[in-house]
Design a protein that fits this description.
It is a single chain. By secondary structure, the protein is an alpha/beta fold. The protein folds into two domains: 46 residues, no CATH class; 270 residues, Spore Coat Polysaccharide Biosynthesis Protein SpsA, Chain A (Alpha-Beta Complex). It is built from twelve helices and 13 strands. Strands 1, 2, 3, 4, 5, 6, 8, 11 and 12 form a nine-stranded mixed β-sheet that branches. It has a two-stranded antiparallel sheet with strand order 7-13. Helix 7 links the parallel strand 2 and strand 3. Helix 3 packs antiparallel against helix 4. 34% of the residues are buried.
């Protein structure tokens, strides 16, 4: 947003500190994207079926003419073979202490490339990622601004449509766990012609931990929610970038062609909020809060998708410790 416009909008805020804060935030907002999103919401809102509405919401945000150009580009390049089978895309801010476990876990399970968007970290994120970047495992992208989550996801799709067969789009507190297959690529072999596969969360709580203790995330937090808890209906997507336009939200994509499947290999006809969670084939361990102190640090970092910070009630909602997981993840 233009500085003059931001100054005008905030001129009536009496508190100087709040006025400067909101001016700084407004300047970073991409007004064009906001308008495009608003128009997409209005038009797509007229479609009664939820999944159809969401698909068209994504297409309209992407832009009908852009969509046509992309379809033609994919048709021209259909014979181009990808360099990598599976990559991960994530946006992160001040997640330095957690990268090693997260990267090495997913690398062990078949991820060949990581696209890490650094959203103005002030910790040692860049230094920690440097050895992985030097080896070619990580592409490090410094990406400033507010509300950048979906923008970075779409940037990743646009830049890597031809060089990666699958991109798993997850957060730093999410770990993909294949149950019936040894690796994630082995699981994906069943979905050769899919546009996307949606995998359910399993939310893990703090286990009563107040402070950060020694050990990895997966060692420290063993208690999780009941599998059928409504929060576990949420999904994250592994997508074929040649078959999708863009992300609708952080959970799902607008398809170009092909179908979206659940983890059982069934084409989706219901929105993820209307389906029962599946954890028997593959799942995503979602360590949403960790210890209470770590949650407060997460809260202070802000959110990648919206401007509001999380309320303290988020901890109460996600601190679910109903069952204990005795699986030894070191053997994966």
């Amino acid at each position: 947003m233009n500085q003059a416009v931001a100054n005008f909008i905030t001129a009536f805020i009496p508190n100087k500190a709040k006025r400067e804060k909101w001016r700084g935030a407004l300047v970073k907002i991409n007004v064009g994207m906001v308008i495009k999103k608003a128009l997409a919401e209005i038009v797509a809102g007229l479609i009664p079926h939820k999944m159809t509405r969401n698909r068209w919401r994504g297409i309209l945000r992407y832009g009908p003419f852009n969509a046509i150009r992309l379809m033609l580009k994919m048709r021209r390049n259909k014979a181009v073979k990808p360099t990598h089978f599976l990559a991960v895309c994530a946006i992160a801010k001040n997640e330095g202490p957690y990268f090693k476990e997260w990267i090495e876990w997913h690398q062990k399970l078949g991820v060949e490339k990581f696209y890490i968007y650094d959203n103005e970290s002030t910790d040692n994120t860049k230094e920690i990622l440097a050895p992985y970047a030097e080896s070619g495992l990580v592409d490090y992208i410094f990406w400033p601004g507010l509300k950048q989550q979906l923008i970075t996801y779409d940037d990743c799709l646009e830049k890597h449509r031809l060089d990666v067969h699958w991109i798993a789009v997850i957060d730093m507190d999410e770990f993909i766990i294949p149950i019936k297959d040894e690796t994630i690529p082995k699981f994906l072999e069943k979905f050769e012609n899919a546009a996307a596969v949606e995998i359910n969360w399993l939310v893990y709580g703090s286990g009563g931990a107040k402070q950060k203790e020694a050990g990895t995330i997966m060692e420290r937090f063993k208690k999780h929610s009941l599998p059928n808890h409504y929060l576990n209906r949420h999904v994250k997507s592994i997508v074929n970038p040649r078959r999708v336009f863009s992300f609708i939200g952080c959970h799902e994509v607008a398809r170009m062609n092909g179908k979206t499947f659940d983890s059982h290999g069934i084409p989706l006809k219901k929105h993820f909020r209307d389906r029962e969670p599946q954890h028997d084939v593959i799942k995503i361990n979602h360590y949403a809060v960790k210890s209470y102190d770590e949650f407060l640090q997460k809260r202070a970092r802000g959110r990648a998708r919206i401007l509001d910070i999380r309320g303290l009630d988020y901890f109460e909602e996600y601190d679910l410790n109903d069952l204990e997981d005795n699986q030894d993840f070191s053997k994966k």
